[in-house]
Amino acid sequence: MKAGNGKANWRIGVDIGGTFTDLVMTDAATGRLFNEKVLTTPDDPSRGVLGGIELILGNNKVAAADVEHVIHGTTLVANALIERKGVRTALVTTAGFRDVLEIAREWRYDIYDLFLTPVASLVPRSLRFEVKERVAYDGSIVEPLDTTALEQVAQQIAASGVEAVAVCFLHSFKRADHEMQAKRILEQRLPQVTVCVSSEVMPEIGEYERTATAVCNAYVQPLFRKYISGLIEGLKRMGIHRDLYLMQSDGGTVHSDTAIEYPIRLVQSGPAGGVQATSLIGRLAGSPEILCFDMGGTTAKACLIDGGQPTVTTDFEVARLQRFRKGSGIPLKVPAVDMIEIGSGGGSISRINQLGLIQVGPDSSSAVPGPACYGQGGADPTVTDADLLLGYLDANAFLGGDMKLDRAAAERALQDRIATPLGITLTEAAFGIHETVNETMAQAAGIHALEKGKKASDYVMVPIGGAGPVHACHVAQKLGMKRAIIPIGAGVASAFGFLASPMSFQFVQASVSSLAQLDLPALREMIAGLERKGRALLLNSGVAEADCQVRVSAAMRYVGQGYEVEVPVPGLEDGASVREQLAREFDRCYEDLYGRVEKDTPAEIVSWRVVVQGPTPELTARTQAPSVSDATARDRADSARKGERQAFSVTRGAFAATPVYDRYRLVPGARLQGPAIIEERESTVVVPDAAVVTVDGYRNLVVDLPVKAG
User: Where is the Hydantoinase A/oxoprolinase domain (predicted)?
Assistant: First the structure.
């Protein structure tokens, strides 16, 4: 491998998806960017990561010694929970609360299903142990921890072949003494077993959610530790001896040591990177109100970005039994970008349902065998197969020509599974799949916006993911959106987002109090303690003290409610002013979300959040977009034209000769009109009839969409 130059300027972002592993490499000194996309290796994801890094270094003649650090996002945690392939885990809890994971919230996610399948616990009842102890709601000790009973439980756990233990005692968010005492005893008696306590993983009110989150963290931690340790060793063998960083679900990055302690915070790491990328793209393009549309090989997701910043939630689910049914999964109380799954990905399988209609997903062909057109033995028709037959994809230009697509295999799959059974043509079958997935995604994205009190048509769409730009304009039109901004390298945007994300960590501490009874001295002490912990984490990761930023917020609600609203917290110096400002901010946030306020109902604070963050990396690749005449703009576009091919026009309902452009030759100031197909290595942009495309100074494609009549 090439010898290093002694300057470690290169940073690499790696995102493992269900079908592809994406890599982006940037030179911090010059801003140069390079991309790669390789097939994911499901049997051993690290093999794809290391192979991809070796490929991107070799192709661009960069030495491993010149890599400053690698930032990684992985689906390992999510997949272990979805597939229930974590380690054998035990639960130690307060006497009388052994079955909290099965009792849950005592409500059915589908009240009309008489044969409802409940969400199964990750811990069988035989591995759930009780010990006598009790902490009251106010933190006072009602009954001391029975250490003798805990010693006996440790012996039972040792004999059961358990690899991880979660400890969750009642009201430990208020006082964690018993949990920490139990942790010390269990670690002494079970040195080979991972021990997680809920007060460290999620010190918040909500017994069921806290238990579930702690159990999930314990369930995946040994697997994650082994994976990260192996990856670090692989990087060292390659010659990369710098620290490894991981992307968290809330859009911040952390050192691998911290990530190993809290792997549950990485369950949405890949999608969070994509949201960070679109936030940056929107801000740079002067469009801070963005609908992020992330369509990869397996799923499609959407996220609303207001004012250039995505919303972060602490309430979401993983491993749902029914993909779009709220309550059918395991609840997690960890910070994550607020996004929803709205549909299928390029590898999602199409079939005919019981009503004789085309259905897309939810299952995917994944990387192996992949869509039929990959030529790896897949026989099921997928969205990618349909896009190929509609002329949107070039069989000889996929992944820049590195991966040839088998058109005949795609035709066989659609003909045998869709066209022949329905008695329709191959084109009708392909368009039926394409239209079905577009309509499903548009409806879901529109409903998501309405649930936030917003209209999707007020936003600008930024599509990412390999399949995002193929479908984006048609989905945007269905939503009544007027513009889409399609970044260069959209197919690897999540990996790019890792490089654009700051180092950060969020702490939370439950403390239920009315505004009138707020104990400001105690609050200041608690906030200061959390801030010190955060600064220590960042300083140990190489962030300078002067670069640390702190944000404080409160989770507030009206008394009697069971859900909270996140409210930014002003300075905590003036007691009366703090209470007044919190009340005003809560009313504003609540009205913004729900359209009303309850003036006669008192508000209360449920928990406090402290985010300690380092500086946001500067990634700019701006070229001045000159003001040119229409003729010059067309000439600039024509110079990037590389031919034409027959592609299906949604407007005309038939195939039409469609110009094809090389994305890399479209320079700032170029302008063209649809229909058009714009190809780059990682994705393809499908421009509908009458849409106007302008290349801006960041080489984004700014697509102004025709307003549909009616």
Answer: 210-501
d(CA 557, CA 569): 14
Q: For the domain that residue 24 is a member of, what is the CATH number?
A: 3.30.420.40
Asked whether residue 40 is domain-assigned, the answer is yes
Same domain? For 106 and 219 the reply is yes
- Asked, as a colleague might, if the bond just before 310 is cis with ω within 30 of 0, I would say no
Span 28-49, mean pLDDT?
Answer: 85
Q: What is the mean pLDDT of the chain?
A: 89
* Sign, Cα dihedral of 184, 186, 189, 191: negative
Same domain, 99 and 200: yes
Q: Which two tokens stand for residue 616?
A: 């946001």
Same domain (yes/no): 96, 34: no
**Neighbouring residues of 121: CB distance < 8 A, sequence distance ≥ 6:** 101, 102, 215
The verdict on 650 and 689 lying in the same domain is yes
**Nearest Cα to Cα of residue 455 among 322, 306, 309:** 306
Tell me which of 552, 578, 613 is where a domain ends: 613
pLDDT in tens, 556-605: 999 988 888 999 887 766 656 888 888 889 999 898 888 888 888 889 99
Q: Tell me the two tokens of residue 125.
A: 């009842």
Amino acid at 233: E
User: Are residues 417 and 519 both part of a single domain?
Assistant: no
Cα 360 from chain centroid? 22
**Residue showing tokens 């005893």:** 185
Is residue 216 a part of any domain in this protein? yes
pLDDT at 623: 44
* Count of the separate structural domains present in the chain: 5
Single-letter amino acid, residue 340: I
Cα–Cα distance measured from residue 280 to residue 282, given in angstroms and rounded to the nearest whole number: 5
Kindly report the number of other CB atoms within 10 A of residue 573's CB atom.
9
pLDDT of residue 633: 62
CA 318 to chain centre: 12
Residue 146: which of 136, 134, 158 has the closest Cα?
Answer: 134
Give the list of residues 6+ apart from residue 588 with CB closer than 8 angstroms, or none. none
Residue 109 has what pLDDT?
83
Other residues' Cβ atoms within 10 Å of the Cβ of residue 620 = 8
Q: Quick one: pLDDT at residue 624?
A: 44
Residue 105 lies in a domain: yes
Q: Which of 267, 88, 121, 78 is nearest to 192 (CA)?
A: 88
Quick one: 386 and 405 in the same domain? yes
Same domain? For 517 and 602 the reply is yes
| pLDDT number for residue 709 | 46
- The separation between CA 705 and the C-alpha centre of its own chain, rounded to angstroms, equals 28
Rounded mean pLDDT of 311-332?
82
pLDDT of residue 578: 81
In a domain, 555, yes or no: yes
- Kind and range of the H or E run holding 15: strand 10-16
C-alpha to C-alpha distance for 166 and 264, rounded to whole angstroms: 13
Q: Where does a domain end: 419, 435, 451?
A: 435
User: Quick one: tokens of 599?
Assistant: 């003036």
In 3D space, the residue among 94, 185, 107, 108 whose CA is nearest the CA of residue 137 turns out to be 94
Tell me: pLDDT of 625 over 80.
no
- Residue 615 in tokens: 């500086």
The mean pLDDT of 9-36, rounded to a whole number, is 86
Neighbours of 231 (CB within 10 A): 20
Which residues touch 124 (CB under 8 Å, ≥6 apart)? none
**What is the residue range of 366's domain?**
348-435
User: Which pLDDT tens digit goes with each residue over 322-372?
Assistant: 766 788 889 999 999 988 887 678 888 999 988 899 998 777 787 778 899
- pLDDT per residue as tens digits for the range 94-107: 999 999 999 888 88
- Residue 392 CA to residue 379 CA, distance in Å, equals 21
- Categorize the per-residue pLDDT at 130 as very low, low, confident or very high, splitting at 50, 70 and 90: very high
Q: How far is CA 480 from CA 292, 344, 442, 443, 455, in A?
A: 15, 21, 10, 11, 9
In the predicted structure, residue 76 carries a pLDDT above the cut 90: no
Q: Is a pLDDT exceeding 80 seen at residue 200? A: yes
Which is nearest to 255 in space by CA: 546, 619, 538, 50? 538
